[in-house]
């Protein structure tokens, strides 16, 4: 192709970009280069520019598209220096336009500025100042932010400085926010500007730790000695008079601006203002505190913090300067965040034109993906009809129909910007580079469009602590003078995108900058989830900034446990609040999940409406008719029916129950029509029951083995060259220990088989290898030619022919990681059922690409009882929960009376056609029991009935100011302890060693070290002869070198332990498994 580059760079970026472009193309002018170039070469140019990009960089690339025009391909750096179609300006003219600041921005800015001025008043205490100077213990009986609030409340009531300090001790346990005491008689949330400021001051380092907001716990520690004459309640010095003049002036301005805006009717408004103001305050406090001030010999004034210098710790910022800087920056950040929400493309990079063109390319109208074209057209019409409304899309297309690609296409079509930005969140604990690479190839994107979050703070801390070059940074991630907890640092892979100056200070590391800067972020849901958890402090704000500036795609929304789904729905709520589009995909979207998702999105949109209107609400007549009454757009799309688009109206609070009921009826009619259409299709997945004479693990193992043999014999393909029969089968189990045990059993019982075990407990490079191989082998849309031509598979088939063995079953034993984010096509499957949803999702991996009608020959087998029930029966507890971990049954939740799958699945003559009807229809007793459990555990937080912990209540409860409700509904079970292990070398024994990383230190930990463990902690088991897709240690090290990965990272694993007596067992063929000491 023939390309032209135009540079609009400024300052130092001019020289950098010229050096890169001169090495690839011929200069045709001062700012112009041209050259013929291959696609690979063009990608190299773009990557080189992106690596060196700063805020001053701006380079556009155009391709000669024929038809007498040049087509814009991409812009690296600031897009605003070129026109919408890439036009280069011939000159510049300054245009001054009046800046209109919304009423709520003024309120949030004033609240943030006043709170920033007051937030660290408590650091004026004698105790805190001595602590900074190393002369007092670290722990305080009363935290400085609670003292700050009590001081301000006293001064606001007319007390002088010294009297206010004396008042702190007597008032330390009183829970007054504003003029209102938060207690059982007053459970609702913030209802005035004064309450908003008080809550900002007291929670800027974390929420209240009690069930209902009260100081006992995190803010006031009753277990520590706290006499009235303690140095904690004695001032070191007093702020200058100008400080109090400014504070009182800001207080009066805020009170005057918000006059008449107090009371229960204003709770949604002040909850919204609080979100922005608190995010700005946390942002400002973190960035200002990180600044290093010149050394000052005068140590008599009050200081705010310290700085770690090469010669030791020294006093850093004067407290008065710190308060002033935080105050001004917080107010500025409110305005910038508001602009970011309105126009993210003005500050951050979106998808480039060439990438957008690839994503929006229509599907073949003759293929089974043609439904995507109809859905995209309908969504485009909805965007045109409702240009400013957010959209909630339910993508309920069947498995193997291209949901993932349609999700990305829908995000681009619905974007209100010409350069879309969105995040894809997957329900996985960790991603590998292979996950991001597969999505990148599927969408036709380049490295400059996509970033992947591939690790978490455990991996990141491991790097920091073990890298000698970073020793000076080790102390930073743990905590600071304010006692902030260590923040999660993400490990990312992808391109580099410049950030505006105001964001750069909050994202100092390139790893983190990718998260907010990437046009398309592929991530585990774990990183983004902090946006809905205010007590996560800096991580909360960083995730929130991503949510503000990008739409959200939630893959397999119904794959979460109810408590985990509560955490996900908080993201949905805030996305709606920021006006972002949310796309939820699942072939088995159940009624209660759909109801809760809609409630979350509607409540967020209502909060945004309350925020925008304030006192000066426009009447409906002043707006375009469609915009005045539309709250958001709801869309149902799938591969069986035409798209359904509905504009959901904004209604008063009294009419919202009726609106929710109407939308639920819409869901019911849609699902009913969808199931009718599915019933008319050929049968692609047909299951049979595997009867069990006894309810025991040994009988269950025998049934699984028999099912594998039967299904392989029924669906094996014959290799034309060797005459050997082969098939690829899946054995889905619920947990890792079960997977390893089943893999060993099958490998021993079926010596002719090749058995692989796929789960999360593996060395990073080993899991990467398995995913890469499975992605290649099981991509079967074009048939099996690539399989029989594969070197490894060819060797297995030829070996079997040489040894006169008639067949080779290839068996993958997998946990639920196979059900999310993996596009594999198996010939058959044996499924251990955890829930109705898991049955349909796992079955969707069978006959996924080829879609060959199977008629009366079942390609799926289901044991009559699941493994957990059999294990419970062996222990003499047959009534213990069986459909759990994963699943919805639990001891303290919904207990299921029947565990016999022959009774609770809708079998017909021992056969079951597996479609969405198993999960969504009325005939499946297991699905109905699952729905009841979901309702009981999910609806108290996101449901039609509002309670004391409801996130969707119009009058939000005060409990949302406490950590308790967030800790009760975490994304992941936090009972376990994460351990980091690595495969090392033993120089003395000339073999391998297994080492655990042991952290040292507490508040200012100085890293840690690798400690070798013996067989009591980590036992090694040799691989069985027919184990498949495993690598020995030397091969793994060679793989690391081949893919350019550091051994220390690639040969490590994060393992979760639940007891100090647990030990680890490493089966070289099937991965790492936790074994309780009793086993």
Q: Strand content of the residues, in percent?
A: 15-25%
Number of strands: 33
Q: What would the average pLDDT be, to the nearest integer?
A: 89
Computed CA radius of gyration, to the nearest angstrom = 30 Å
Structural class designation: alpha/beta
Helix content estimate? 25-40%
| Uncertain segments | 456-479, 617-628, 1001-1006
Q: Give the number of helices.
A: 36
Strand line-up across the major sheet? 13-12-14-11-15-16-10-17-18
| Overall outline | globular
Terminal CA distance: 64 Å
Biggest sheet statistics? 9 strands, mixed
Q: What report would you give on this structure?
A:
With 1079 residues, this protein is α/β, with parallel strands linked by helices. The chain contains 36 helices and 33 strands. α9 (267-289) crosses α19 and α20 (562-577) crosses α33. The chain is globular, with a radius of gyration of 30 Å. Residues 456-479, 617-628 and 1001-1006 have low confidence and may be disordered.
Key descriptive features of the protein:
1079 residues; alpha/beta; nine-stranded mixed sheet; 36 helices; 33 strands
In short:
With 1079 residues, the protein is α/β, with parallel strands linked by helices.
Chart the SSEs and their pairings.
Layout: E1 2-7, H1 12-22, E2 26-27, E3 32-36, H2 39-51, E4 58-64, E5 70-77, H3 103-118, H4 126-132, H5 144-156, H6 161-171, E6 176-177, E7 180-181, H7 193-203, H8 241-257, H9 267-289, E8 306-309, E9 312-315, H10 319-342, H11 353-360, H12 371-385, E10 391-395, H13 403-414, E11 422-426, H14 433-443, E12 450-455, H15 457-466, E13 491-494, H16 501-504, H17 510-517, E14 520-524, H18 525-528, H19 538-549, E15 551-555, H20 562-577, E16 582-585, H21 591-613, H22 625-629, E17 630-637, E18 644-649, H23 656-679, E19 686-690, H24 697-715, E20 717-718, E21 725-732, H25 736-749, E22 754-758, H26 764-777, H27 785-789, H28 791-802, E23 807-814, E24 828-831, H29 836-843, E25 860-863, H30 867-874, H31 901-904, E26 911-913, H32 917-920, H33 925-938, H34 964-968, E27 977-986, E28 991-999, E29 1008-1013, E30 1018-1021, H35 1033-1043, H36 1047-1050, E31 1052-1057, E32 1063-1067, E33 1071-1075
Parallel strand pairs: 10-16, 10-17, 11-14, 11-15, 12-14, 15-16, 19-25, 21-23, 21-24, 22-23, 24-25, 30-32
Antiparallel strand pairs: 1-3, 1-4, 2-3, 4-5, 6-7, 8-9, 12-13, 17-18, 19-26, 20-21, 27-28, 27-31, 28-29, 32-33
């Amino acid at each position: 192709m023939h390309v032209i580059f135009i540079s609009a760079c400024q300052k130092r970026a001019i020289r950098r970009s010229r050096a890169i472009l001169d090495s690839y193309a011929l200069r045709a002018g001062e700012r112009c280069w041209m050259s013929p170039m291959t696609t690979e070469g063009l990608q190299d140019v773009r990557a080189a520019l992106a690596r060196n990009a700063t805020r001053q960089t701006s380079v556009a690339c155009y391709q000669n598209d024929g038809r007498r025009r040049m087509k814009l391909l991409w812009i690296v750096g600031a897009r605003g220096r070129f026109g919408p179609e890439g036009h280069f300006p011939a000159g510049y003219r300054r245009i001054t336009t009046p800046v209109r600041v919304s009423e709520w921005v003024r309120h949030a800015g004033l609240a943030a500025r006043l709170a920033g001025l007051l937030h660290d008043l408590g650091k004026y205490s004698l105790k805190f100042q001595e602590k900074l100077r190393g002369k007092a213990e670290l722990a305080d009986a009363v935290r400085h932010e609670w003292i700050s609030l009590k001081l301000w409340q006293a001064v606001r009531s007319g007390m002088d400085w010294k009297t206010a300090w004396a008042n702190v001790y007597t008032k330390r346990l009183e829970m007054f926010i504003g003029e209102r005491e938060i207690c059982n008689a007053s459970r609702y949330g913030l209802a005035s500007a004064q309450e908003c400021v008080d809550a900002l001051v007291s929670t800027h380092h974390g929420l209240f730790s009690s069930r209902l907001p009260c100081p006992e716990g995190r803010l006031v520690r009753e277990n520590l000695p706290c006499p009235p004459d303690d140095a904690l309640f004695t001032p070191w010095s007093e702020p200058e008079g100008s400080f109090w003049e400014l504070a009182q002036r800001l207080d009066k301005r805020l009170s005057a601006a918000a006059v008449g805006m107090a009371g229960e009717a204003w709770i949604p408004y002040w909850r919204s203002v609080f979100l922005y103001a608190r995010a700005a305050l946390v942002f400002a406090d973190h960035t200002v505190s990180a600044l290093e001030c010149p050394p000052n010999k005068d140590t008599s004034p009050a200081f705010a913090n310290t700085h770690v210098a090469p010669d030791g710790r020294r006093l850093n910022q004067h407290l008065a300067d710190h308060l002033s800087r935080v105050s001004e920056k917080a107010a500025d950040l409110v305005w910038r965040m508001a602009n970011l929400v309105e126009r993210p493309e003005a500050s951050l990079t979106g998808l480039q034109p060439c990438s957008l063109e690839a994503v929006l390319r229509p599907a073949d109208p003759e293929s089974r993906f043609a439904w995507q074209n109809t859905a995209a057209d309908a969504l485009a019409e909805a965007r045109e009809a409702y240009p400013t409304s957010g959209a909630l899309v339910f993508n309920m297309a069947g498995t193997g129909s291209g949901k993932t690609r349609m999700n990305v296409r829908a995000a681009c079509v619905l974007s209100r910007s010409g350069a879309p930005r969105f995040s894809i969140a997957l329900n996985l604990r960790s991603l590998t580079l292979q996950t991001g690479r597969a999505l990148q190839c599927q969408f036709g994107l380049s490295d400059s469009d996509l970033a992947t979050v591939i690790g978490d703070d455990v991996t990141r801390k491991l790097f920091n602590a073990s890298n000698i070059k970073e020793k000076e940074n080790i102390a930073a991630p743990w905590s600071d003078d304010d006692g902030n907890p260590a923040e999660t640092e993400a490990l990312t892979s992808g391109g580099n995108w410049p950030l505006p100056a105001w964001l750069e200070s909050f994202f100092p590391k390139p790893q983190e900058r990718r998260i907010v800067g990437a046009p398309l972020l592929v991530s585990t849901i774990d990183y983004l989830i902090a946006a809905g958890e205010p007590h996560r402090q800096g991580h909360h704000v960083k995730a929130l900034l991503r949510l503000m500036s990008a739409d959200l795609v939630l893959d397999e929304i119904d794959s979460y446990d109810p408590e985990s789904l509560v955490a996900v729905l908080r993201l949905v709520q805030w996305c709606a609040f920021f006006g972002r589009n949310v796309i939820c995909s699942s072939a088995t979207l159940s009624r209660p999940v759909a109801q809760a998702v809609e409630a979350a999105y509607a409540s967020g949109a209502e909060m945004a409406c309350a925020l925008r209107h304030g006192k000066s609400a426009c009447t409906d007549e002043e707006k375009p008719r469609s915009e005045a009454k539309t709250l958001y757009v709801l869309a149902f799309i799938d591969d069986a029916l035409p798209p359904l688009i509905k504009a959901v109206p904004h209604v008063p609070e009294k009419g919202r129950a009726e609106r929710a009921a109407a939308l639920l009826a819409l869901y019911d009619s849609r699902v009913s029509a969808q199931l009718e259409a599915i019933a008319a299709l050929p049968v692609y997945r047909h299951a049979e029951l595997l009867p069990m004479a006894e309810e025991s693990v040994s009988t269950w193992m025998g049934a699984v083995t028999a099912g594998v043999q039967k299904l392989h014999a029924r669906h094996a393909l014959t290799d034309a060259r060797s005459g050997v029969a082969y098939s690829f089968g899946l054995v889905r189990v619920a947990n890792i220990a079960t997977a390893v045990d089943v893999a060993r059993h099958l490998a021993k019982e079926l010596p002719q088989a090749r058995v692989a075990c796929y789960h999360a407990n593996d060395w990073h490079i080993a899991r990467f290898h398995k995913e890469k191989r499975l992605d290649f082998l099981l991509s079967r849309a074009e048939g099996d030619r690539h399989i029989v031509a594969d070197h490894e598979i060819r060797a297995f088939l030829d070996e079997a022919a040489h040894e006169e063995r008639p067949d080779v079953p290839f068996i993958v034993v997998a946990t639920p990681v196979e059900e999310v984010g993996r596009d594999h096509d198996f010939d058959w499957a044996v499924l251990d059922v955890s829930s109705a949803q898991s049955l349909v999702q796992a079955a969707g991996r069978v006959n996924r690409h080829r879609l060959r009608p199977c008629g009366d020959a079942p390609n799926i087998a289901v044991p009559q009882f699941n493994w957990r029930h059999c294990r419970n029966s062996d222990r003499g507890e047959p009534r213990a929960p069986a459909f759990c971990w994963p699943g919805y049954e639990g001891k303290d939740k919904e207990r299921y009376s029947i565990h016999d799958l022959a009774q609770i699945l809708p079998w017909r003559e021992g056969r079951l056609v597996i479609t969405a009807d198993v999960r969504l229809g009325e005939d499946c007793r297991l699905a109905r029991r699952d729905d009841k459990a979901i309702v009981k555990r999910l609806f108290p937080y996101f449901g039609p009935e509002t309670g004391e912990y409801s996130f969707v209540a119009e009058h939000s409860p005060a409990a949302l100011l406490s950590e308790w409700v967030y800790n009760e509904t975490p994304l992941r079970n936090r009972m376990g302890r994460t351990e980091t292990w690595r495969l090392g070398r033993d120089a003395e024994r000339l073999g391998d060693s297994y080492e655990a990383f042991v952290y040292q230190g507490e508040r200012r930990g100085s890293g840690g070290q690798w400690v070798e463990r013996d067989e009591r902690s980590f036992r090694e088991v040799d691989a069985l002869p027919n184990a498949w897709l495993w690598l020995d240690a030397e091969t793994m090290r060679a793989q690391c070198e081949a893919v350019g990965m550091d051994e220390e990272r690639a040969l490590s694993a994060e393992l979760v332990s639940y007891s100090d007596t647990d030990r680890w067992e490493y089966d070289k063929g099937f991965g790492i498994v936790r074994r309780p000491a009793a086993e």
